[in-house]
Hints:
There is one protein chain. By secondary structure, the protein is α/β, with parallel strands linked by helices. 63% of the residues lie in helices and 7% in strands. Residues 1-16 and 50-60 have low confidence and may be disordered.
Amino acid sequence: MGLTHTSTGIHAADPCLQIRKMTPASRVIALAGNPNVGKSTLFNSLTGGHQHTGNWPGKTVSNAQGFFSSDRHSYTLVDIPGTYSLLAHSAEEEVARNFLCFGDHDGVVVVCDATCLERNLNLVLQVIEAADHVLVCVNLMDEAKRRHISIDLAKLSSLLGVPTAQSQARCKKTLGQLKSRLDDMMDQASPAPCPVTYCPPAEDAISLVQKTLLPFLGEAHIKMPGSRWLAIRLLEGDPVLLKELSARLGRDLSQEPEVAEGLQNAEAALKKAGLSRQKFKDSIVEGLVEQAEWIAGECVSFNQAGYDRRDRKLDQIFTSRLTGYPIMAGLLALVFWLTITGANYPSALLSDLLFRLQGFLSHMLLYAGTPGWLHDLLILGVYQVLAWVVAVMLPPMAIFFPLFTLLEDSGYLPRVAYNLDCPFKKCCACGKQGLTMCMGFGCNAAGIVGCRIIDSPRERLIAMITNSFVPCNGRFPTLITLISIFFLTTASGLKASILSTLILTLFVLLGIGMTFLVSKALSVTVLKGVPSSFTLELPSYRRPQIGRVILRSVLDRTLFVLGRAAAVAAPAGLVIWLMANVTVGDVSLLALCASFLDPFARLLGLDGVILMAFILGLPANEIVLPIILMAYTANGSLAEPGSLSAIGQLLTANGWTWVTAVCTMLFSLMHWPCSTTLLTIKKESGSWKWTWLSLIIPTICGMVLCFCVNLTAALLL
């Protein structure tokens, strides 16, 4: 969800979409559908590993292309973003509409969910009006069978006027019919689909405009949507679509004398019938909904009453005001507990392995005659920082990301967004921010990328600026270590892990509370506005594909985030080593900087070493605690992670108290985002202004909170 190599990898900088074909004769097929219908699963099952990723022209919305062959043809499959309608409201919906209407494709496969076909037919009917060669793929037939839902595909094809096929995207053996129907569609003339019938005044107006468009569309040398669909859009007056259309044609169709006259006559006829532009739009939507309802009623039969009773009962629990929020907090704590408990042993094992490897690499460099300063720079600087990052970061991520993805795959995360919609609306923000906030627990850069799902630019900026208030995976080690040392001195075993999880959850809830508070503050100051509404589908609860989830989470998320962290940690290790070993007199640069920052840091309940460690930890939050330990021991290099008791003795010997620990944890929770997140904000927002605000706002909040806690403790103790 959000953070994969397809969304933020090297290909995300591709300037334009270039259709790649296996052979010159390959057919290009657009794969469309609502979110949560199994479209991406179908794409992966058809194309396997033959995929290429990039960005849509001028957009930070990723696309994926894949290749597969059937008995008669080879195909390039373009997976467009999931959308509920061709009436675009977000960047994803805009690129979906533009490719379906204007893209260089030979046909469209619209994927539908067999368990909720009526809702999906709204998009199907719009695509049929806009594109030629449409095939409807009814997916999740196994889920429909389990719910005792029957679909007459032959009748569905007859009523729509386009071919249909069934599939179970998870099972490649069921895709033969889809490939066969796709071949038939490519080899035959485009069928005459059954148009949607609107109210008589709307039909008359559409006909008046449609007649004037035919000569101009015939002249176009680019792919254009159907004249009926285009006439409807001109009557609706969608400015974004009209701008896109003018850019592609090189002229404004609505200003052409014949078209303008047709529009004027049509609008006069609508006005005479009592239909304003808004009422005309409503009549179009109403016509689509009624047609979809009628077709579904003719083709779908429910062989068992209360087929969705289980989902509704679960929703009464998970989305209830009484139980929804406690369950969310409980699941959050459970994920943290599993991550903390499960990561301890592999983290220690990996640390031991990497620091053993350090001895081997050191011996090899010295044997090769490497100068001592270069050896220390590479081994004690770059390698040790990398070893810390990998040892501390990899095991928790390898547990957290699959757990998070399991919640997503089961259908629970949309319920989280539903629950958080109300509090975010009160903050004049968008409920979808709840999803991006959850993504930030794994990596704040992932949360920033995930903000693309928010339609409103204002609300998208609020979500990006506040995302770092939830701690990412890199901040958990510092929080957990300090909790264990200063607040669990008498606990051990299971009791200690449960207590540490509860304390960590309280800190996380504080970060979520600050997210709400700052979102509200931004909404009434620099980003004023009213909350927008959004369509949220609550998909059916499904049994997660555990094997696929683990594989994709490790490959697409865990290793990708780790690679980016390592990329910034390596140069950071070089800088840290230089500051710790370059001296002015007998004092290192690191110590000098820490001494300079110490008076200010004391006001915050910290010391100069702690504040300097946070500054040097800008590339990766994982290295903050190692830098603190290195500065206290004056070793000039990061040491191998020791036991908690040894770390506690070192911190206490350097003046740490429980107040220092609390302030350090608060500042770890609320300070500037890491460099990767800041660069992602710059890329997504396109502005250094919002990037700087994203750095300054959480830092000020953290400093103010630390100052208040330190002052209160000083007055009371």
